[in-house]
Amino acid sequence: MFIDGGLGQVHAVQMIVDAFRMSIPVVGLAKDDAHRTRAVVFNDGYEIELKNNKLLFSYAGTIQEEVHRFAITFMRGTKGRKMTHSVLEDIPGIGPKRRGKLLAHFGGIEGIKNADYTALMEVDGMNSKAAESVIEFFEKRR
Prior knowledge:
The chain is an alpha+beta fold and 142 residues long. It has six helices and four strands. It folds into two domains: 2-84, no CATH class; 87-140, 5' to 3' exonuclease, C-terminal subdomain (DNA polymerase, domain 1), CATH 1.10.150.20. The chain has helices spanning 7-19, 54-84, 96-106, 109-114, 117-121, 128-140; strands at residues 2-3, 27-31, 37-42, 47-49. A hairpin with a 4-residue loop joins β3 (37-42) and β4.
């Protein structure tokens, strides 16, 4: 297992691997004071300096770049999904059409949250069950 971390991280990961009784060697990428990768480090503390091994340095750098690219892409996707998720999507019986009508009628989540049964029933497309679902949903969150 190749990890982006020094001897401390290698030991931590090796303990987890060992706890699961797996036989997987763990090696890490140690950094210098300028946070540049300087060596491959093994669990026993043995290091292979990368400045003397251009092929290994290139290989380790390629792995690091790919891992960082994957992590950044993953985080952007997660953040994007969170930013486009509406709390209204979590209310049973409130689909896209009702969400749109509720937002248009009340002007936002706060208005919907503070609406009573009578006010909710004034919204086009609302029925008794949906209005009760909205009220129950926001009461549980208070």
